[in-house]
Amino acid sequence: MKKSEKPFVLGLLGDGQLAQMTALAARSLGMKTHVFASSRENPAAFVADEVTLGDLADEAALVSFAKSVDALTYDTENLPYEAICKAAAQTPAFPDPNILHIAQHRIRERTFLATLGIPIPDVAFITSEAECEHATRVFTFPAVLKTAAFGYDGKGQRVVREASELRDAWRDLGDQPCVLEAFVTFEREMSVIVARAQTGEMQTFGVIDNEHRNHILHASVSPSSLSATMQQEALRIAQTIAASLNLVGLLAVEMFATEDGRVLVNELAPRPHNSGHVTQCANALSQFHKLCLAVSGQALGAIDARPGVMVNLLGDLFPDGVEPIFRRVGFVEPPLAATPGTAVTAYFYGKQEARPGRKMGHLIAVADTVADAYEMAERAYQVYVHAAAVAGGSRV
Ligand SMILES: Nc1ncnc2c1ncn2[C@@H]1O[C@H](COP(=O)(O)OP(=O)(O)O)[C@@H](O)[C@H]1O
Ligand SMILES: [Mg+2]
To answer: For residue 4, is pLDDT > 70?
Structure first.
């Protein structure tokens, strides 16, 4: 961008921590940000240059918001598709709304992946009594039943141990359209985050290993320690998906590595991803920078990486009686000195209230080796666990 040009205005639909970190990255790249928020108290609203308060279901409000910015992007795939299409007719929206449409519904997502020949866990679609009954006879259990829409952090999912439990599980989820998936006894979970520019330039942050606790991401490790062959397969899969969707922006591909050496895709997220927070410190430019660069029509830039480990800080760590540091916004020094060669930092989203399972912030450690970064991140994490235990309210 030339100095004399008016700054590029990035429009953000969604006002959570992913939009907040995107807005801060945009600012560091010289852009302005305008967020469409449901409340001034939400993470992206208090860092954006401009805030429009409104309801994402209000089509007219979205269209007029779109007119006020140079490009649109999102921090969630759960947006009203028709309204987003109308907004995108005003102002370019990235990734394309069709990608949101696929990723926001597990039946469309599985159908798309299967058509592309991407390996996924065995799946059946349950949209009627008859399909449910049929699956009890032909599907192999244990399995996982997931609502087709609006799931996150394991919400809207039931493990079904045997066929006789399926009917009750489906009722429990509200008899709504679901996917029934084979239960995968994975060796590990990992993700690949692909960034793709408007020119078709494509980069990834490599394979990131992910550890979940209670269906919520706990830690991400970059680079992965998976075998080179399986990492190549994971990268090939993610790049194939991104190219076939003609992606502009970010696409996170969540995957399972099975004990018999297969890579299976679990789900797609066309936006910044929690596992990519490690790139804030481990990479020359983070996932948030890449998104801003892609959306504003620029080249993706440097990709240099150091070994890094990210650990989520959930609300469980901040019971009453612990200093409410989680209300701060941005990077803070954790209460612990880093060992030489290691850097450790904490980042908070500025949420006002800590609740169990709620993502409040994260820690990132970078070092010369993954082992050192892991040890440092774990030590820093234990400081918060200890403080919570002393206050008597930790559920960790
Ligand atoms: N088919 C499966 N087999 C075994 N574990 C699963 C399966 N599907 C999901 N899980 C576990 O549940 C977590 C959350 O499921 P996911 O489908 O990614 O939904 P979301 O992240 O939207 O809540 C996964 O990261 C994984 O740990
Ligand atoms: Mg997931």
So the answer is: no
Cβ-based neighbours of 97, under 8 Å, separated by 6 or more = 81, 84, 85, 88
Taking the C-alpha atoms of residue 234 and residue 225, their distance in angstroms, rounded to an integer, is: 13
**Is 213's C-beta closer than 6 angstroms to any atom of ligand 1?**
no
- Indicate which residue's Cα is closest to atom 13 of ligand 1: 215
Q: Is the CB of 15 under 6 A from ligand 1?
A: no
Counting beta carbons within 10 angstroms of the beta carbon of residue 129, is it exposed (0 to 12), middle (13 to 18) or buried (19 or more)? Answer: exposed
152 pLDDT band (50/70/90 cuts)? confident
User: Per mean pLDDT, which range of 166-175, 286-295, 386-395 is the poorest?
Assistant: 386-395
Smallest-distance ligand from the CA of 143: 1
Closest Cα partner for 93 from 355, 253, 294, 368?
Answer: 294
What DSSP character marks residue 15?
A: -
Mean pLDDT of the chain: 96
Quick check: CB of 181 below 6 Å from ligand 1? yes
| Ligand 1: centre distance to CA 144 (Å) | 8
CB 71 within 8 A of CB 295: yes
The CATH number of the domain where 385 resides is what?
A: 3.30.470.20
**194, 312: one domain:** yes
**152 CA → ligand 2 middle, Å:** 7
Residue 349 CA, chain-centre distance (Å), reads 15
Number of domains the chain contains: 3
- Whether 187 lines ligand 1, by a CB cut-off of 6 Å, is no
CA atoms of 59 and 62, how far apart (whole Å): 5
Closest C-alpha residue for ligand 1 atom 14: 154
User: Does ligand 1 lie within 6 Å of residue 144's CB atom?
Assistant: yes
Q: Which domain holds residue 224?
A: 186-391
Integer Cα distance of 130 and 137 in angstroms: 11
CB of 160 closer than 6 angstroms to any ligand 1 atom:
no
Whether 27 and 64 share a structural domain: yes
Whether residue 99 lies inside any domain: the answer is no
- Cα 347 from chain centroid (whole Å): 16
Please give the C-alpha separations between residue 101 and each of 11, 63, 276, in angstroms, as whole numbers. 19, 18, 22
For the CA of 121, the closest atom of ligand 1 is 1
